[in-house]
Amino acid sequence: MNTERQRELLRRLTDPAAVFPGPLGERSVRNPATAYTSPERFQRELERLFRGLPTLVGLSTECRQAGAYLTADLGGVPVFVVRQDDGTLRGFANVCRHRAARLVEGCGRVGRAIVCPYHAWTYALDGRLRGMPGAESGFDDIAKKDVGLVPVRVAEDHGLIFARAGEGEAFSVDDALQGAQAELADYGLERAELIDTRVSELPINWKLVVDTFTETYHIPALHKKTIEPHYHADRWILDSYGAHTRLIGVRRTIDAEFAKGDERERRLLPHGTTQYLLMPNAVFVHQIDHFELWRLEPLAVDRTRVSTSIFAPSAVSSDKARAYFVKNLDILLGVTNSEDFPVMAQIQRNLASGVLRDVVYGKQEPALVHFHASVDALLAAG
Prior knowledge:
The protein is of the alpha+beta class. 26% of the residues lie in helices and 31% in strands. The chain has two domains: 1-53 and 178-382, Naphthalene 1,2-dioxygenase Alpha Subunit, Chain A, domain 1; 55-170, Rieske [2Fe-2S] iron-sulphur domain (Rieske Iron-sulfur Protein), CATH 2.102.10.10. It contains ten helices and 19 strands.
């Protein structure tokens, strides 16, 4: 985020008309409990959102070299993206054309070819079938050109990689970001370095994971002994970009910026937690001096696999520096895993019990309201 944009956003907090808590949304809304518990609705979300929309797979820095790959699950469709010899990316269904075995796991590098672990069918990086070791004569009536890997649409820009499992025309990252690219491009994510990724499975609906990041209202109560002393929980900066949202919570250290007489010296980023809620599957965060990426994989209506990654802004040259970022990830997950997600698990069980017909989102939770309104609108649009 460039410095002029930071100063522009800071002016909102110093505007004489600003009131706290705020800025408030237009109205409170009610959301049916079934939004979190209905298996039928969950299936529609998988098909229309996770398969139908461009989905953030990861950062370019995670697969820089030829043969490097990332895997993802897009609404139940296993996919992977792989770096080509010419530096471009291609995406494929993560499924062998022989007997549908999974080809690669997690992330890594395959070298010159992709080899199925089941029968060793071998594919070029561009998806062409190169051979069936030890069985060429057994498949001599099958044309290799007809059993290449199934392609998946992929787009890369601004250091971000998106993929879409569903059929449709090609798309760009700018198309997917709907205006948020103006800020995200300024972070220089092409230079970032992955430090660590942790994966967990939570007994909650995928939207409850996103809900965790949509408001600061819970900080004084839920995080009273951890992060509350460091934050102004009654003020935030909010913008929407189509279905996406950017919410900035501000640290108390920001008061020192307001004390600077010359506005040109003021900076927002070191004093804010800047969260981009990228529909449907990701929360990308700038935090003081690093980046965090939460990637969601819905497994069932009440179960979600969550991958949490931390990135340094540039290459890390020492074990001490790497340990610093790892410690930040430990602190982050220490709070979310002991405070946020246990409450979300309780909420999931409570909603499944049927005791409530709906939940209430208040005017001081505008990012929460926008997120669910966007989900509903996308489901209605088909």
